């Protein structure tokens, strides 16, 4: 069943009387349930089990973590369905998987496999350099990356039920994640201070639909859950993202390219829950072994920056 | 908010304030806080044992039940939570919260445990994956007025009532079911467990039951509490 065209969840009065799957409320609802949690990239069933045991709120199934995609190059695509099914069988928590930007057939396959969320992701090689997937018509919900508020609202208009700030995946450098979450939050605060006339101009500048811009200005928040991603490698990184206003975090390469993935994963989960308690964050940061080596974003030539994919 | 609901909220706020905790380790804490505030409750986020002090009722929110279980053990919160629930603290659990309240569960994550409190058997992820999630109207004999519209998100299901632990203070009653009869909401004493999320559809009648149970409890012990240096006298 297709989702209603409205970007705002239905109120009780107009909600369907018959069981209805894939509604805006149901799609956005799963993201609400993930709040305060950590979503971890995994490349096989064993990693998925480690992530679940460590307290991941969901896993992201993919063939190569972003750091390896970056190192090995080539075209990065949706994972083999067999791999995704193995991961689905290994865990009881939600399983997400990535489709290439604009690759609506990869998304159709992922929906068919029964994944819990599709990530239309800049980490994979884009399949369309002009269009993103029209996400309203899918039953499966989508999460999309954004570097700023305009991009986030364009994705929500297309039907994204969850947004993650992009950061710079596969680097272990948190600076871009910081920039993007700060940018989105600051742009939301700015909207809240504008008059009605100014909001029309803001919609033009943000290149986003006016009704969504007006909704954000009125509520002071995105209409969907906002996680952050891209470069988070330590408990302190995760706690900083939460203090900057993220609803939760994605950790990609940071866990399974480190010395002790199980311990680091569990530590990042605790630091996310107790992000405002330095004693806990300090405690869980002890003795985690070698962190992901990483690459400084400043050393990455612009064409190699994944965050610039998406339009 | 409808005019009736606004009147209701004003009426509620005229009465003595009750302190309702929301377990805030992970999940849709904000949605529950909003409903509870709408009912005039003072809301406290519970992440540590000390946060349980002085609570009149508790909400176990939606979220990932295996994660909430794990974090409640790591933080030393689980045993005091179990104690308070056993002592009769009114509790409302939704989705993951129902799983946490169930005495027995099926399809748990490895090593997953529950707090217990409801003499039911609950199956986790009983409807399938997210593409099987849905919203629908429920059969709720206890409520007059409009049907309960609610969201089932990777929801659990109550598969058996009773038949487990002995010596409970009250029988398990069915609060809500699907049109085909499957049980999705139960109550035992002042403990309510729901497989769905009233908090995301603006449905406040279950929370109202919780707050009323908390008020009954505080009214019963008002004298005692006044004597015990509480911030405000009740009466």
TrEMBL record, chain A:
Entry keyword set: Lyase, Pyridoxal phosphate, Schiff base
Organism expressing this protein natively: Brachybacterium halotolerans
Catalytic residues (positions): 98
Function: Catalyzes the formation of pyridoxal 5'-phosphate from ribose 5-phosphate (RBP), glyceraldehyde 3-phosphate (G3P) and ammonia. The ammonia is provided by the PdxT subunit. Can also use ribulose 5-phosphate and dihydroxyacetone phosphate as substrates, resulting from enzyme-catalyzed isomerization of RBP and G3P, respectively.
Record domain PdxS/SNZ N-terminal: where: 24-229
One GO MF term attached to the UniProt entry: lyase activity
Signal peptide: none
Positions bound to D-ribose 5-phosphate: 41, 170, 231, 252-253
UniProt cross-references to PANTHER family, sorted A to Z: PYRIDOXAL 5'-PHOSPHATE SYNTHASE SUBUNIT SNZ1-RELATED
Protein name, entry field: Pyridoxal 5'-phosphate synthase subunit PdxS
Similarity comment text for this entry: Belongs to the PdxS/SNZ family.
Pfam family, one: SOR_SNZ
UniProt xrefs under InterPro entries: Aldolase_TIM, PdxS/SNZ, PdxS/SNZ_N, RibuloseP-bd_barrel
Gene label: pdxS
PROSITE patterns with a match to the protein in the record: PDXS_SNZ_1, PDXS_SNZ_2
Region Disordered: start-end pairs: 1-21
Binding positions for D-glyceraldehyde 3-phosphate per the UniProt entry: 182
Pathway it works in: Cofactor biosynthesis; pyridoxal 5'-phosphate biosynthesis
Origin: domain of life: Bacteria
Reactions it catalyzes: aldehydo-D-ribose 5-phosphate + D-glyceraldehyde 3-phosphate + L-glutamine = pyridoxal 5'-phosphate + L-glutamate + phosphate + 3 H2O + H(+)
Annotated Low complexity bias: 1-16
Assembly: In the presence of PdxT, forms a dodecamer of heterodimers.
Enzyme nomenclature, EC number: 4.3.3.6
